Amino acid sequence: MDLSNYHSMDPSMLLGIINMKLRHECSSVDDLAVCYELDSGQLQSKLSQIGYHYDAIHNQFTAV
Fold first, then answer.
1. pTM of the full predicted structure?
2. Sequence ranges of the domains in the chain
3. Consecutive 10-residue runs of the chain (64 residues): their mean pLDDT?
4. Most buried by CB count within 10 Å: which residue of 2, 9, 43, 57?
5. Do you know which Pfam families this protein is assigned to (predicted)?
């Protein structure tokens, strides 16, 4: 899936896609950012708007 337009995606849909990518393809949010040429800080900021933060231990975004 093309994530180049993640800025304009619905945050809830983005959350599901990102967590799937973290589960199946990437070992960390930084790895995901490199693989898909994303800004990790902006991605995390967008998901924090809906109350989610990156949990490095579980390698997923979880509710605060």
1. 0.93
2. 9-63
3. 88 97 97 96 96 98 96
4. 43
5. DUF4250
